[in-house]
Amino acid sequence: MNLSSITKKLQNRSPSILGQDELQKSAILLPLIQVDNETHILFEVRSMKMRRQPGDICFPGGKIDKADKTPKHAAIRETTEELGIDESAIGDVIPLDYIVHDAGRMIYPFIGTLKNVEKITPSEAEVEEIFTVPLDYFLRTKPDIHKVDIKIEPDKDFPFDLIVGGKNYNWHARQIDEIFYKYDGKVIWGLTAKILRHFLSLLDKDNNDIK
């Protein structure tokens, strides 16, 4: 294959994320509601019956199905299923930055407004309880941040003889920030806290209209 045929073949392609077809894709909705003329964020506590992360605090969301037209549709569908509401109760769905996670997941977060919240009937199979936190609390409160070391441990049959340095190879280790928000006995951490912090970073903290 010559140079001109290579450039001709590739010149009009649009770049994407390498390996994204192998990633498990999920969509999440950060729900905003009005409580006594004040903006609140709604959270779920995962059911203790759940196989993964029982009792953790999260936003509505889940795996993107083949039937979902877009990640946005998946976020809306998951929210209706978990909160027992109609799609018409969800409005102003706006994308946040998506996340490529070390655990082989790609997450598409959105914000959205909920109305008729008095009609919310959480799924007993997935949701232990729901609660809300005033947005203003998060705007005024700095989270606790703790470091987590990410270490590389090759398999026992790793071919050290094929790399320079062998078993003494200087693997690049790194740290990540684990974020914790605490409110009224509840602890919000993990991906939920990271998405929340990203959302808060997009807001103008001096703008009283968001309260």
TrEMBL record:
Q: Locate the Nudix hydrolase domain: which residues?
A: 23-158
Q: Which domain of life is it from?
A: Bacteria
Q: Which UniProt keywords apply?
A: Hydrolase, Magnesium, Manganese, Metal-binding
Pfam families the record matches: NUDIX
* UniProt cross-references to SUPFAM superfamilies, sorted A to Z: Nudix
Entry-linked CDD domains: NUDIX_CoAse_Nudt7 (cd03426)
User: Which InterPro entries does this entry report, sorted A to Z?
Assistant: CoAse, NUDIX_hydrolase-like_dom_sf, NUDIX_hydrolase_dom
Name the cofactor(s) required for activity, per the record: Mn(2+); Mg(2+)
| Entry protein name | 8-oxo-dGTP pyrophosphatase MutT (NUDIX family)
> What species is this protein from?
Virgibacillus natechei
